[in-house]
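[09:14] KT: can someone run the structure on this one? pasting the chain below
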Amino acid sequence: MAYIVDRRLNSKNKSLVNRQRFLKRYHKQIREAVSDAVSRRNMTDMEQGDTITIPKRDISEPHFHHGDGGQREIVHPGNREFIEGDRIQRPPKGGGGGSGSGDASDSGEGMDDFVFQISQSEFLEYLFEDLALPNMVKRQLTTTDSFETRRAGYSEVGNPNQLNIVRSMRSAHARRIALGGRSRRRRLEILAELEQLDESETERRELLEEELSRLNVRLNRIPFLDDFDLKYNLHVRVPTPSPKAVMFCVMDVSGSMTQDIKDTAKRFFFLLYLFLKKNYEKIEVVFIRHHTQAQEVDEETFFYSRETGGTVVSSALNLMGDIIAERYSPNAWNIYCAQASDGDNWQEDNERCHKALTASVLPMVQYYTYIEIGDREPQGLWRLYEHLQSDFSDRFAIQRVRNNAEIYPVFRELFRKTMEVE
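[09:31] RB: done, structure tokens below
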């Protein structure tokens, strides 16, 4: 059997084709390793690549070998202890040279698990595989540097490499017809008359031949191709609709939100940010924290500043609606929101939350996700959101999270590919 190995090198002296084939072959093992990495890595390392370990049992190759039994005659070089006919005792159980396990030994050779490195882009590809952004739309940027070149007909000026040969020859042919049409018709008339003249009409023949000579000179002076005939393909740069998004991160920072709950929320926010960044050319993030009052803050304050007091969720929703109306028009932005909370809210505030969401938030967003963190029984906020989910099923989703290990499965559940994305 012949094996063909592609050894063409990419810029880093690695066989790119063979690497892609390897990643495809061990797709399941790499997918599991990436999933495990999400739960054990720090948020600052989430966007980097990873070291993947594949157990040796998963990379073993099938091969032919002799089975037990039968009669074999084998000559082993360097044998000084046995001769033909001697019986060799079987080695005791548990011994051996260590070729079958990965444990360390003082003799023999071991077999380690296969370890290799995947890049940042490969890590993100496996991280967000089979996921889709619901209702993703390409918006037209008012101020953009995103252009594409489109054909816009033909021009009489341009670069030689843009010359349209067919159009140029067609124009030259039309010009020659227009300039020499009368002369050609007169030449045909003279030729027909010359055929009908008798040999005695020499004077008339000489006049016609002289006129025919002048017509031929005139026709030959018409150039085959003139500068006027040259036509060039015209290309113009036009602004193109570019996908851009804004991500609203809304988190409760009241006294009931412990630092562990905030760390869990941070993992969810960061996964969503990476997912949006993978799908959009331009993305902005707005951090809104709230207790009894809501405030737009920077990232450091959002995750690490401590607050005490009660919880009024409607203050954050109203602030988000005001920011959307002021800075992020739905006609130009894809708007996404992620809210994290432990479920606490004043009972009197639930009605205000319902009004804020249905009036100024949900009609404007592409997708709204809510995760409730903790082991407690669902609170009033959860029951309110369950009711909204039935009314806005295409753009509103809720999930419960108990610990960091559930973040990635919950994230995949929220963004699994269940619909066609524009």
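[09:33] KT: thanks! The CA atoms of residues 151 and 178 lie 29 Å apart.
[09:34] RB: yep, looked fine to me
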